Amino acid sequence: xxxxxxxxxxxxxxxxxxxxxxxxxxxxxxxxxxxxxxxxxxxxxxxxxxxxxxxxxxxxxxxxxxxxxxxxxxxxxxxxxxxxxxxxxxxxxx
Length: 94
Description:
The protein is an alpha+beta fold and about 90 residues long. The chain has helices spanning about 1-20, 35-45, 75-85, and strands at about 25-30, 50-55, 60-65, 90. The two termini are about 20 Å apart.
């Protein structure tokens, strides 16, 4: 079930990322323990220069981020979530 959710979310972001000329990254996010935590994570990611969109799922504990690779790197995304109190790791960068 998690794999299906990840696949569907990745496909949705990939379409947006491809259309915008961006890359996407999937982050595994920890410390999310309530339904409002993804809002904080999303806002932290959106503040990173070069981030075009961020979708965070509480159930799967994943964030899928479309970003401009000339302006930011996956490491900056991890740093943003970690500084917001939600450590993450890069699961996938297609």
